[in-house]
Amino acid sequence: MTSFLTRRRLQGGVTGFAVAALVLTTAACGGTTRGEEETTAGGDAAASANPDAEIPEGLAVGFLPKQVNNPYFSVASAGAEAATGEFSGEYTETGPSEASASSQVSYINTLSQQGTDVILTSANDPNAICSALDQARSAGSSVVTFDSDTDPECRDVFINQATTEGIAQTQVDLIAEQTGGQGQVAILSATANATNQNTWIAAMEEYAAAEHPGLEFVATVYGDDEDEKSFQETQGLLQTYPDLAGIISPTTVGIAAAARYLSGSEFKGQVALTGLGTPNQMREYVQDGTVQSFALWNPEDLGYLAAYAGAALAAGQITGAEGETFEAGELGEYTVGADGVVVLGDPTVFTAENIGDFDF
Amino acid sequence: MAVDTPPATPAGQAGAQRPPAASRLRLLGSGDAVITFVLVLFLLVAALSVEGFASARNTGFLLLDVVVIVLIALPLTLVIVTGEIDLSVASTVGLSSAVMGQLWFAGLPLETVIPLCLLLGAVLGAVNGFFVTRLGLPSLAVTIGTLALYRGLAFVVLGDRAVADFPRSWTTWAISTIGGTGIPVVVVPLLVLVLVTAVVLHATPVGRSLYAMGNSEDAARFSGIDVGRTKFWLFVVTGVVSALGGVYWTLRYGSARADNAQGLELQVIAAILLGGVSIFGGRGGLLGVLAGALLLGSVRNALQLENVPADVLNIVTGGLLVVAVVAPQVAGWVRSRTRPRPAGPPNAPPARPAPDTRPSTDPAVQVPADQRGNR
Amino acid sequence: MSERAGSPVDTARPTATPTPAAPPTERPGRGAALVHRLVVVRELGILAALLLLVVVTVVANPRFLSGQNVRDLLISASILTVLAAGQTVVVVTRNVDLSVGSTLGLSAYATGTLLVTAPGTPVPVAVLAGVVVGALCGLLNGVIVAVAKVPSLVVTLGTLYAFRGIDSLWASQSGRLQINAADLPDGFKAIAGARVLGIPVLFLVAVVVVVAVGFVLRSYRSGRELYGIGSDPDAARLSGIPVGRRVLAAFVVSGALAGLAGVMYAARFQTLDATAGTGQELFVVAAAVVGGVAIFGGSGSVYGAALGALLLTTIGAALPQLGLDPFWREAAVGALILAAIVLDRSLSLRLARRLRGRNLRGS
Questions:
Q1: Are A189 and A251 in contact (CB under 8 A)?
Q2: Contacts of A266 in chain C (CB under 8 A)
């Protein structure tokens, strides 16, 4: 009997939960479907820029990478810190220990709560951090994204490491040079929804079809920017496509893992590898002949430019509108393009000849 | 933590009726008092010493970060009190988020999508409940399995894509606050759920039966409690609430992804255990769990404001968890040393060695010891 | 650990007021032989599943069994196998070690740092250093579990966070966020590709570990006592087994093996940062459970766990060959765990029925 009572009550509890849950979820009006809502118009174009404004001293600059302890971002951070020093700002670096979509949100909140003037960030997910960035901006922070953009509505300026065309063409030209422009090519990317990688891959395929028709793109695999996964995906590629002529990996983690796999396998020197990598990680494989050439922009310059763009925003030199210009210290003058995008420049190609000149 | 639940003797009927009203009150009061005191103390210190901590805005940030943890902790506390565990909660969040994204992407209205997600949660919970109560398998192993299974299915459903074009009215509602207080709107329905759960756990025969099951399942069964059924429904509720957490998570971040809330189960369980709930079941209260979740959230929030790196936050989280389980043991040991009790059985906590009171779940091992059969 | 199977049909267990079951060191009767046969059958089952998977995959892609691919597969499995062997030792005592992934990361980073700062370090010393780091982590776990008598699930969940935090704090404070292949001495890097009679050395290491652990668990009194502890800790205590010391030792072994796995990781991947081994605990526990190690202790063999590790690794490698999305891997792992525990349950129930039947006739 007790059991019966127990069950009853418990089921009552279940119903209670369900009712409360439904109340919670149907609080808004009925029948909301996809594509119904109008998208709000772009950023606040009302403010006007004053190109001659001085960068005030003591600007608080907060640097929020996808994940702390990531070597690529720590190089970018060094650049941002150097720039912040040049305009006498105060610099902090913070960030989550895992690169997940939501983990950056509480760090953005913290930066905003600390009264940070400039937030420099690279987004793990183009949308998940949007509302937090919006809140930070309405609280007075200027937001600069670099490396990985958010929805353009959520930030003031995006520092693009290079144009999509520049990156795509450089990599395709490198692989065409190494394979003689013929054969199967596979792509080892980061995560499947990494905004920048996907745009580059599309552009690479388009460019190759036009300029190097002998190259056949057979597969795109995802190493999730994890060393082990990238390593295993490379291994899988070579099993699945025994006639593979080359691999392009437009991510620093991927290319290093792929190079390490190739250098220890029977495919060394047989399968060409190029992509975007850091000289320090790739030095060994360039020297042992696994890799002939690869490319990358200088992440230090990227961070440096991002910090200067943030300072220009905070000072009111720019608002993020197309056509505005600002000075970025020793990198010279930059112009804001469409959608508030600032392009860093063309990537550098590293080969056995010049790799010794770089240390990052 | 001198909680006064009956000792785990399989003495039979008495077990279920043991905690009278007075002791139930004490359960709410003393058992949770320590962690609540620590929380209040921490909030005071942080408010005085951490710049920007005590403000309406920061309160909002802090609360938003713990909402889902508290939400899932409610049913999971009940599950743990009965001596079971559900490690699959965060994967349920991920799968319901992925399904929500996929259905929304397919053009279904949100008002249909959300009940479907909750239904999915019920099914996922029922799968756990079936394996645990009908097949009699250990919930730890079952839910480690479904932790992997549900997360894997989330990736199968949505892949590495993200669905993000949820209506703005919904996503802004998810993070909106009540006037200028900084308190998120969602805290209100959450508080209702907290109250409902607290009443069920601490003021109804159902709640008492959960403690009875946690202390001695056999005793609970002898006293007429339908252990299997109760536990089954607890798993179902946990699934539904976790799916609700997935729906809210998706709206709060405006992004449906298969990897949403990955690893959240550890934070939820950490909050529950920090709140003084015994992992063996039978002990703990909801106030403590609430305090535990808020303490973890506040510590992270305050340390972030002080620019303490994420690595240290992880060490602090892990350390707190270990301290939370070791401290009562040490306290009990010290108490038993300084004030030896002349009569009666010793207080439960220190005397309770790690995994005991429970015969093996694996008869294969038990049998060879005492069987001497010959054909 | 949580407790109670909550089984409505679990009539096979002894009553809750036990005249403690005699320790399993008594005369092994025919029942024990039957149990042993069950374990063997169980392991043959995994082996059959593994073979089936390989055959299906080979049909889809004959290159799956090429020399290079099999070597890669064995190397991939070896790290998980060593972890699973350590986990088995802990799990049979009715405990669990969730911190192995973090321990692996810490040990890998420590070994890497040692080799970078002192490139002349002989390889055996580097290996030893990694093992010692792991053993220290295990010692900490073991002391808290055995001395403070708190549940290992909670303790190792805490140290999972803490060891990882120490690892990444170390990496960021030392300014060496990543250790690259170019920084490591050639002698160490050679381990990854080294082979004896065509078999990768890393895999041989795993085989040696499994055989050694299996031998100790089976043939030493202290090893068999671990099973006794897992079956019934109270009975074990009453029969004079030093439960605390044995459990402590089990954690040290698990830690040391996670440390060894860390060294193997460093040798194989040669790019080390503070995230090495993140999330491995799931696959390690899965390998043990799939291999027939009961999560509540007292039964299961290290050979089964090793086969479980091999099966999980093969699934990961086979999915792309079968044209399935790699996303299916985690779901497959989950389904396998469920299948394995259901199978174990039904096997043990059947066994219990048979033994009971005989008991009735015998008495």
A1: yes
A2: 68
A: neighbours with 3+ CB pairs under 8 Å?
B, C
Q: How far, in Å, CA of C39 to CA of B250, rounded? A: 45
Q: Which chains does C contact via 3+ CB–CB distances below 8 A?
A: A, B
- The fraction of chain B above a pLDDT of 70, given in percent, is 82
ipTM, 2 dp: 0.82
**Quick check: C257 pLDDT over 90?**
yes
Whether C224 has its CB under 8 Å from any CB of chain B: the answer is no
Which tens digits make up the pLDDT trace of B187-236? 999 999 999 999 999 999 999 999 999 988 888 888 888 899 999 999 99
Residue with tokens 């894997």: B152
- What's the gap between Cα A280 and its chain centre? 20
The one-letter amino acid code at C232 reads D
Cα pseudo-dihedral A70, A220, B151, A227, rounded to 10: -30
CA–CA separation, C295 and C92 (whole Å): 8
Average model confidence (pLDDT) across chain C: 83
**HSE-up (13 A, CA, CB side) for residue B144:** 27
> Which of B104 and A19 is assigned the larger pLDDT?
B104
- Distance between CA atoms of A261 and A267, rounded to whole angstroms? 9
- Cα-flanking dihedrals φ and ψ of residue A52, to 5°? -95, 5
Average pLDDT over residues B317-329: 83
Domains and CATH numbers, chain A: 60-161+299-344 (3.40.50.2300), 164-296 (3.40.50.2300)
Quick check: is B71 in a domain?
yes
The answer to whether A241 contacts chain C (CB < 8 Å) is no
**Percentage of the residues of chain A whose pLDDT score is greater than 70:** 88
pLDDT tens digit string along A109-133?
999 999 999 999 999 888 889 989 9
C-alpha closest to that of A7 among B248, B366, B234: B234
Q: Which of C18, C3, C31, C43 minimizes the C-alpha distance to C291?
A: C43
Residue A226 has pLDDT above 80, yes or no: no
Judge if pTM exceeds 0.90.
Answer: no
Tokens of C125: 């010393």
Cα distance between residue C115 and residue C108, in whole Å: 11
Residue B217 lies in a domain: yes
Kindly list the structural domains of chain C, giving each domain's residue range(s) and its CATH number in brackets, ordered by start.
30-358 (1.10.3470)
CA distance A237 to chain B (A): 19
Contact C271 A69 (CB under 8 A): no
